[in-house]
């Protein structure tokens, strides 16, 4: 009985081992010649019959070794030959993947950005035949191109023959070409064709894009939720859908469209139904001719619709809602966003079709998903604006075809985005002239267009420490529309050279009226004088405008395009302009006389305080030391008598 009981225990243990191996591999079941359920039942039945084990279905062949079950278990753990199940670590910033975890990403050098992704499938061969690289996005485009037989003609002058589509958009047999041959004696700026946009809205978008839409280009539009990304792209689809083919392409290479005519624009939405998008288009008064609506989240379906319609442009709203079946992860994950963007990039480059995609942003204001998404696309645009204001700013952060300094100013309405002809009148239209308001008008230049803004400041003195308040709270610093580091720098300059250290004990609040964000250092003088006006409780002259950069020594540094700034100030009715003396030359003097503006030249921030507020500056160094000299932190040692 003891031997029989021991045999039954061993039989049950062996049955458990074989059950695990049966569930983890398919090749083991094929060896036994039956399904996994049948093999599992046979294993359990054989373990209960007695000491005669292992069952026949699990016995190793004669040609194999005695440890065949262990080798089969090893094969089951390693996976089949066609696919490999494993886990990978992917960087959430740049998309770098590795088989092990790193504290710092080897790709982008960001700490603690490697996240684990389980169940990653790594096919050994592509679905189209040989492995040619490119990932799931490239394979999806290759399948669509093979089934629909799309004629491949690149819009940038790289022609290719028809045949099996590779994963990339550059032909393997295409030889290197000399730059002189590519230019071919064309006029400057005519090598890259552009699709022109009509109406005032189109002209404002063209300003940001650098002259029009480039065929085959890929544009990413990001912004906060509800700022108007879908609205402006739906209006852009309406402009591209009814464009005149004769004026659409500028400076075409051969003057003819060899690949057939492309009609309409496909607007693919993964967030709204077709009826919802159509209702929004009807409310905004968009011409329905030439615009095709499609609601889908599977990117393969969108690519199939592109191959059937052959549209002139494609809009995908948004990249975080679409997915590829071959890619791992859920929609919006790092792998899905990267592969979907790659598939759309391949489709754009192979067909010459411009692609616009909408990208969500995170709490920090960056595009959600991997950082590689911004590297894949050709143009990155950000739509900025506050929810309680109607002003929207379209700003370029990356542009391979133009400048990133240009901005487009729009105003949100029931009919969609409306371009603003005069941004200065918009930002200064609600200006309040009151002795209680410390506001300083300034002129900034964004790209090729100057416009005026108003900088407001408020200072509030903190209570000193006493018996009732032994540990007062530190002063508050708030800047809206201005970089916080820039405000801290200007406060340090004011405390040391202009207003004294008592200004550091005050709460300071800065606001740029209109919701505009200032990155131009030429507005330093306006910000500093607005703070000084609130601190000394004296208003600035209402007919004076200010611009200039403030250095760390309190000096005023010159800025570029002073003539255009003076002309814009004169247009808005200002008669005096305070500017750095170093940047005033003959051209500036001529511009001032032409526009009837008086120039107030200042060398330092202390001179600007006296000219604008008629206040004598308080220098911290002069207050601490009678002669303005500071003792050395490292005094010289007295020499000994033997030296």
What labels would you give this structure?
643 residues, alpha/beta, nine-stranded mixed beta sheet, four-stranded mixed beta sheet, 33% helix, 19% strand
Describe the structure.
With 643 residues, this protein is α/β, with parallel strands linked by helices. Helices cover 33% and strands 19% of the residues. The protein contains 20 helices and 23 strands. A 9-stranded mixed beta sheet has the order 8-7-9-10-5-11-12-13-14, with helices on both faces. Strand 17 (477-480), helix 15 and strand 18 form a beta-alpha-beta unit. Helix 1 (2-24) packs parallel to helix 4 and helix 16 (524-536) crosses helix 19. The longest helix is centred in the N-terminal third of the chain and has 23 residues, at 2-24. The model is unreliable at 24-37, 43-84, 120-133, 149-168, 244-260 and 621-634 (pLDDT under 50).
Q: Which ranges are low-confidence, i.e. pLDDT below 50, for 5 or more consecutive residues?
A: 24-37, 43-84, 120-133, 149-168, 244-260, 621-634
**Overall form:** globular
Rg computed from alpha carbons, rounded to a whole number of angstroms: 35 Å
Strand content: 15-25%
Largest sheet: 9 strands, mixed
State the total count of DSSP E strands.
Answer: 23
Helix fraction bin: 25-40%
Q: Give the overall average pLDDT.
A: 77
The CA-CA distance between the termini, in Å, is 106 Å
- Kindly name the structural category: alpha/beta
Main sheet: strand order: 8-7-9-10-5-11-12-13-14
Total helix count?
A: 20
């Amino acid at each position: 009985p003891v031997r029989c009981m021991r045999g039954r225990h061993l039989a049950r243990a062996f049955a458990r081992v074989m059950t695990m191996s049966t569930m983890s591999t398919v090749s083991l079941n094929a060896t036994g010649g039956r399904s996994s359920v049948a093999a599992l039942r046979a294993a359990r039945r054989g373990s209960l019959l007695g000491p005669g084990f292992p069952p026949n279905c699990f016995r190793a062949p004669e040609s194999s070794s005695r440890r065949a079950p262990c080798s089969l278990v090893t094969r089951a753990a390693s996976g089949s030959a066609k696919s490999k199940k494993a886990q990978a670590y992917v960087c959430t910033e740049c998309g770098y993947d590795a088989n092990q975890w790193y504290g710092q990403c080897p790709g982008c050098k960001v700490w603690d950005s490697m996240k684990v992704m389980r169940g990653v499938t790594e096919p050994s061969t592509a679905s189209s035949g040989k492995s040619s690289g490119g990932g799931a996005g490239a394979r999806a485009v290759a399948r669509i191109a093979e089934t629909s037989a799309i004629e491949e003609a690149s819009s940038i002058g790289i022609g290719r023959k028809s045949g099996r589509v590779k994963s990339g958009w550059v032909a393997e047999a295409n030889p290197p070409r000399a730059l002189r041959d590519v230019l071919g004696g064309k006029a400057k700026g005519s090598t890259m064709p552009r699709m022109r946009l009509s109406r005032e809205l189109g002209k404002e978008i063209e300003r940001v894009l650098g002259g029009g839409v480039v065929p085959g280009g890929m544009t990413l539009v990001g912004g906060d939720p509800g700022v108007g990304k879908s609205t402006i792209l739906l209006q852009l689809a309406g402009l591209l859908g009814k464009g005149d083919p004769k004026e659409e392409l500028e400076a075409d290479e051969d003057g003819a469209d060899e690949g057939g005519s492309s009609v309409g624009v496909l607007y693919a939405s993964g967030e709204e139904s077709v009826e919802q998008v159509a209702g929004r288009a009807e409310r905004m008064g968009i011409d329905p001719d030439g615009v095709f609506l499609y609601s889908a989240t599977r990117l393969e379906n969108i690519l199939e619709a592109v191959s059937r319609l052959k549209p002139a442009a494609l809009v995908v709203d948004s990249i975080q809602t679409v997915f590829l079946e071959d890619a791992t992860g859920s929609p919006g994950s790092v792998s899905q966003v990267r592969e979907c963007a790659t598939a759309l990039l391949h489709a754009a480059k192979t067909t010459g079709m411009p692609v616009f995609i909408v990208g969500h942003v995170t709490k920090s204001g960056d595009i959600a998903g991997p950082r590689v998404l911004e590297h894949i696309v050709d143009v990155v645009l950000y739509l900025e604006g506050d929810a309680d204001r109607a002003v929207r700013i379209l700003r370029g952060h990356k542009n391979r075809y133009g400048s990133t300094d240009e901005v487009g100013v729009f105003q949100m309405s029931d009919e969609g985005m409306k371009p603003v002809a005069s941004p200065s009148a918009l930002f200064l239209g609600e200006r309040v002239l009151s002795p209680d308001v410390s506001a300083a008008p300034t002129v900034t230049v964004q790209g090729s267009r100057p416009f005026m803004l108003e900088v407001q400041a408020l200072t509030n003195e903190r209570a000193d420490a006493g018996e009732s308040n032994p540990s007062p709270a530190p002063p508050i610093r708030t800047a809206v529309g201005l970089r916080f580091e820039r405000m801290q720098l200007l406060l340090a300059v004011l405390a040391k050279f202009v207003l004294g250290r008592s200004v550091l004990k005050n709460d300071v609040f800065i606001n740029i009226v209109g919701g505009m964000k200032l990155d131009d250092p030429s507005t330093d003088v306006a910000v500093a004088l607005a703070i000084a006006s609130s601190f000394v409780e004296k208003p600035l002259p209402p007919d004076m405008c200010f611009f200039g950069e403030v250095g760390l020594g309190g000096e005023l540094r010159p800025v570029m395009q002073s003539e255009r700034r003076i002309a814009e100030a004169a247009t808005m009715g200002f008669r005096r302009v305070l500017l750095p003396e170093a940047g005033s030359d003959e051209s500036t003097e001529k511009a001032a006389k032409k526009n009837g503006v008086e120039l107030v030249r200042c060398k330092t921030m202390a001179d600007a305080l006296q000219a604008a507020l008629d206040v004598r500056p308080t220098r911290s160094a002069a207050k601490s030391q009678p002669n303005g000299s500071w003792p050395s932190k490292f005094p010289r040692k007295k020499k000994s008598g033997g030296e």
